[in-house]
Amino acid sequence: MYNKGLKAYASVGVSNQVVTADPYRVIQMLLQGALDKMAYAKGAIERKDFAAKAENLTKSVAIVNALQDALDMDVKAEVTNNLFDLYSFIIDQLTDVSVDNDITKLEETMFVLRQIKEGWDAIPVSAREEGLRMQAERQAAGA
Question: What's the pTM value of the predicted model, to 2 decimals?
Fold first, then answer.
């Protein structure tokens, strides 16, 4: 997941922070990046700057796609499936916003992603470390 997250993050044009970030921080930066691009798209819609709207919505979709692709679907956890479905919903909503310029729909979509980010931000350090340890063990067993 970490390498997929790094590649995804690099593909959507982010800062050099990603090189030194742990997997938790990479996902945190992706979530914030998607929210930032959605906020820019909202402002562009309000200004009727449809080129900027399209650019920022496209980047938002790319980031959310990267988040979805980074999910470890081999882990048969309910949370993984729920996140996959939420990311699919967000992508669908952003596609609709791109067509109909519906700011309310965009705000609702941002709310959903903000809830995911708040949950991610609240993960205790001990749980993050345990997750990294388990991932390393799975990778070592598969190697």
Answer: 0.80
